[in-house]
Amino acid sequence: xxHNFGAGxxxxxxxxxxxxxNAVLDFNGLSLLEISHRxxxxxxxxxxxxxxxxxxxxxxxxxxxxFLQGGASLAFTISxxxxxxxxxxxxYINTGTWAxxxxxxxxxxxxxxxxxxxSEDKNFNYIPKNIVIPNDVDFIHYTSNNTIFGTxxxxxxxxxxxxxxxxxxxIFSKKIDISKYDLIYAGAQKNLGPAGTTLYIVKDTILxxxxxxxxxxxxNLKNHVDKGSMLxxxxxxxxxxxxxxxxxxxxxxGVEAAGERNNAKAELLYHEIDSNPLFNAAVQGEDRSKMNVxxxxxxxxxxxxxxxxxNDAGIVGLKGHRSVGGYRASMYNALTIDSVKVxxxxxxxxxxKNG
Length: 355
Ligand SMILES: *Cc1c(COP(=O)(O)O)cnc(C)c1O
What we know:
Elements: E1 3-4, H1 14-25, H2 40-57, E2 63-68, H3 71-83, E3 89-94, H4 97-108, E4 112-118, E5 139-143, E6 145-146, E7 151-152, E8 163-166, E9 183-187, E10 198-203, H5 221-226, H6 236-251, H7 254-275, E11 279-281, E12 292-297, H8 303-312, E13 315-316, E14 327-330, H9 337-354
Helix pairs in contact: 1-6, 2-6, 3-4, 7-9
Pyridoxal-5'-phosphate binds at residues 8, 71-73, 98, 143, 147, 166, 168-169, 187, 190.
């Protein structure tokens, strides 16, 4: 048995993989991959996936759920283009690689970006505090969970301005108040489903108000909302599998129960890291991500031995991102606490033998 701590594409429940595989072979007599996306059976899938997102996150009236393509990377561009108003200015928080990606794409479409808070001075190992939000901007953008550096905003940014959030790596991991946001986007492959679709939760009042002269049809969210997320051929496999995963999430108590399970997993692993003399957490205190736990070995000369120990235990995907080094344990919804126990036991035993 393998324990997948990979940062994404993510682990999903085994049952979801099985049902998805079955649908590839037989979905009402044809393969899911060969039916028309306009057929009633796929339209049902799209509608159920959208309504499960609304149910899971308690999305209020006045919002539309879309499943588009292009990943969160294209959402950097789409969000900037659709939220741009007459000021052509926006406020962005820079908490790492993905936030920077969003900043660069906003600049690329002609927005004057005010990076009003940043944690770059300490290689993004904290969440900026005492943030003063600018008021001469069209919208505010931040990244709720920083997948690479292992930091996470524990609260929504409070602002009267339109609020945009990249929730790629912590959406569905806990309860959130959707009504505080104007636009949320998330690449599916971190905590929702397979790569190929990108979830957008769009407040309908933002639609059709962009001040951008450049607005290709596919990048205008209004066109997707008007067509029920079927402007062009949607990524059917990714949407179907995401739907299965949402069914599973709701069956198991929804985001509230998932949040409790994720808290327990994070507590267990951070406790081991903090109490183990051979390891150090890369992030301290309340800024720690419950999804992606980054940690370092105090004495790297033991690295090969430790790497062998966790590999032998069936753990995969623990290698840290090159911009932090060390290790990163990604603990998305489908990772069980038993898998986390396997990791903490490996760490514990390694220290008993080598400490
Ligand atoms: C992975 C990730 C992205 C990039 O997602 P793609 O779908 O690969 O474009 C953006 N933001 C965050 C927070 C991520 O974790």
